[in-house]
Design goal:
By secondary structure, this protein is mainly beta. It contains three helices and 24 strands.
């Protein structure tokens, strides 16, 4: 019996297979589309072993800002570059008299001050939220408010399931306001908000425990239903960890399917998509929100081994900043 190999195929069919394999891989952004890529500037905040740290964009001058030991769930720089919103993790636990029960994690948002850290006080912060559901803060451009993910069921001792919604609060604290009117009755959970051009925001959308992907809609949209998906709510199926570029030209996200996992960028209308980075075999991407340099040319991200990296939007300039280790969620400062 003749053994079948690729070489036994006709040349025309081999060429067709080659083209198909090439086109199956997402294209990278052409240099002429990217424009001039200058070296990044600014600082990057990140979590190390539960505490808040910062470093220069190249990984140098690493400095602990807050000794918290339970920081988790999102970081955002204020526009002034001197304050950082971050989340801390706690735990609600129920133990019945017969030993049954359970627990769930709870979170609140705090603000760290670089002035205090530089003066030697690393145990100083301001509390912003107090209902134990706040994660993934995102500072507005004018520095007056923080948009964030809020689990509206977090303060219940034994919740049936979380109810993650996008809320807003003044940066000094105060009353929490939901962006949507259907937040109590909706089947959709909305996480990891990031504000983009034309007052749109992108977010991770889940139907209870079934991830839908990344959704995009106006900030003032009051309801989200199944019929909105693909119509008034643009959808990137299977995506997570969204981040708008500061210039509004690109939305970065992580493709969460492990068979095609990678960092991608897309145009606001979702008409074009480019691959930025694909992890090597045995490595996975952290699914905290991605983060952009202030010139919209570089992205910072973390891998599952705790190493932190930067890469430019054409997929070049890959540089390791820290780790491996207990490092999470790198976030670029907004100022140059």
């Amino acid at each position: 019996m003749r053994k079948f190999t690729l070489l036994s195929l006709p040349l025309g069919l081999l060429l067709t297979l080659f083209v198909l394999l090439q086109t199956a891989q997402p294209a990278k952004l052409p240099p002429e589309r990217a424009g001039k890529i200058d070296a990044p500037l600014g600082q990057i905040a990140f979590i190390r072993n539960g505490s808040l740290w910062i470093m220069d964009w190249d990984g140098k001058r690493q400095f602990e800002v807050v000794t918290a030991e339970n920081a988790d769930g999102g970081i955002s720089w204020a526009p002034d570059g001197r304050r950082i919103a971050f989340a801390r993790k706690g735990r609600a636990e129920l133990k019945g008299p017969d030993g049954l029960g359970g627990y769930h994690n709870v979170y609140d948002i705090f603000i760290a001050f670089l002035d205090s850290a530089e003066a030697g006080n690393k145990f100083w912060w301001n509390r912003v939220t107090g209902d134990m559901g706040g994660r993934f803060p995102y500072w507005t451009a004018d520095g007056s408010q923080i948009i964030f993910t809020n689990d509206l069921n977090a303060n219940k001792v034994d919740p049936m399931e979380p109810n993650y919604q996008t809320c807003v609060i003044d940066a000094t604290g105060g009353k929490i306001r939901s962006l949507r009117e259907d937040y109590q009755n909706t089947a959709f959970n909305v996480l990891m908000p990031t504000i983009g051009p034309n007052n749109e925001y992108a977010f991770v959308l889940k139907n209870r425990f079934d991830p839908k992907g990344v959704g995009i809609c106006p900030l003032d949209k009051k309801t989200i239903s199944e019929k909105d998906l693909g119509v008034s709510v643009k959808l990137i199926p299977g995506a997570a960890a969204p981040a708008w570029s500061p210039d509004g030209k690109w939305l970065a996200y992580v493709e969460s399917d492990l068979t095609k996992q990678g960092i991608y960028i897309t145009t606001p209308d979702l008409s074009e998509k480019f691959l930025v980075y694909k992890p090597t075999v045995g490595k996975n991407l952290q699914t905290y929100p991605l983060s952009w340099s202030s010139n919209s040319k570089w992205i910072t991200f973390g891998l599952s081994d705790g190493s932190l990296w930067i890469i430019d939007i054409t997929g070049n300039g890959l540089r390791q900043l820290t780790g491996p280790g207990l490092n999470l969620n790198p976030v670029w400062s907004k100022h140059r």
